[in-house]
Amino acid sequence: MNARKILAVTAAMAMGVVGLSACGGGDSGSDTASAGGDVAMTFWHNSTTGDGKAFWATTAADFEAANPGVKITIQAIQNEDMDGKLQTALNSGDAPDIFMARGGGKLSDVVTAGQAQEITVDDATKAAVGDAAFSAFTVDGKVYGMPMSILPGGIYYSKDLFTQAGITGTPTTIADLEADVQKLKDAGIAPIALGAKDAWPAAHWYYFFALRACSQDTLDKATADKKFDDKCWTKAGDDLAAFSATNPFNEGFLTTSAQQGAGSSAGLLANHQAAMELMGAWDPGVIASLTPDKKPLADLGWFPFPEISGGAGEAGAMMGGLDGYACSKAAPKECSQFLNFAMQQKYQEGYATAFQTLPASKDAQSVVTTPALMDVLATYNKAPYVSLWLDTLYGQNVGNALNAGVVNLLAGQGDSAAIVKSVVDAAAKE
């Protein structure tokens, strides 16, 4: 993957300035790598089961073996619980030494509150990752997070269900998508799985409509001044409302979770109970954890979010995020050392394999062989720019208001103007 253009619209944030959209599934739990020692660190991540959880346990143990006297206590927390627990821990002064971070305005808020420390990045890590991915974790010219994976978004789908519905290609416009939705419904197949109970998956639909409706300059401007007065923000909501009126989502989508169990939106796709899901590049790993045999979904495909008519966004633009890790203010220097250790090619390859995702290090990308992820890479390499998820880009307060506003729209309790107003009101309180 060419990392130079990831998250191009984060430039304004990086010069001035955790809604989570991430991977993970299953029940929460904790592992203790060991206890005691000269240097003790606590580490929170969101992979509570399977290969991802095992990867971090092995990586921590290897770091301990290479650094006698260092002991790491790991706690795995369900993704949808992570944001609240982490904020509580940070605010109480009892934060883990190593914690998940996804950059943008949310990490900037943590830095501004004095809750994170600058990370020392080794030359080898800088060369393998590149400046663009680090820009999302940069505040006032200093790096406060280590990117582990690059997660562009798009629509995952079941090739078998498409064939069953008589769909021979993938949609390139919203009109095409609406036509495919109707074919799937005619075949008795739920077209699109949506875990709106967790808010952010529903908001992703608005984000992508905004990516198509708004120019890159407009996205950058909103990052800098938190003003959302361009008409494209309302157009995005209107476009989503019109699409939602075709009833494309699974029955009960407002009470469906995103990634927890067979009944989640990822689980519906994993078990061929729905044909599509809009999600980031962590989705193949989550889906694999929810198939009956706990193996990758053999017929999983991917296509970019379709284009819309009348939008100012450049054709082919993408949106996504990065999974990364930060060091709390009180963490020992070994925190940075551990994060650099985990960025070695061996561990980035292991990370990509365990999570079935795209590693941040270009040295490790040869291990990506999942067809859907290879399609993501190919599309990414042609993208003119890639924006951060809007809730990450604009910070927690604005992001939460945006996510809630989108859910209200889909529930028939609000409209595009209400989304914009809630975002503007949240920004005014900062």
Textual characterization of the structure:
The chain has 430 residues and is an alpha/beta fold. It starts with 10 loop residues before the first helix and ends with a helix. Helix content is 45%, strand content 15%. A hairpin with a 2-residue loop joins strand 5 and strand 6. Helix 9 crosses helix 18 and helix 18 packs antiparallel against helix 19. The strands form three sheets. Strands 4, 7, 8, 9, 10, 11 and 12 form a seven-stranded mixed sheet that branches. A three-stranded mixed sheet has the order 1-3-2, with helices on one face. Strands 5-6 form a two-stranded antiparallel sheet. It is built from 19 helices and twelve strands.
Features:
seven-stranded mixed β-sheet, alpha/beta, disordered N terminus, three-stranded mixed β-sheet, 430 residues
What is the overall number of helices?
19
Return residue spans where pLDDT drops below 50 for at least 5 consecutive residues: 1-6, 8-36
Overall geometry: globular
On the 0 to 100 scale, the average pLDDT is 89
Overall radius of gyration: 20 Å
Question: Helix amount, in percent?
Answer: 40-55%
Instruction: Give the biggest sheet.
Output: 7 strands, mixed
State the end-to-end distance: 36 Å
- Number of E-state strands: 12
Strand content: 15-25%
Structural class: alpha/beta
Oligomer: single chain
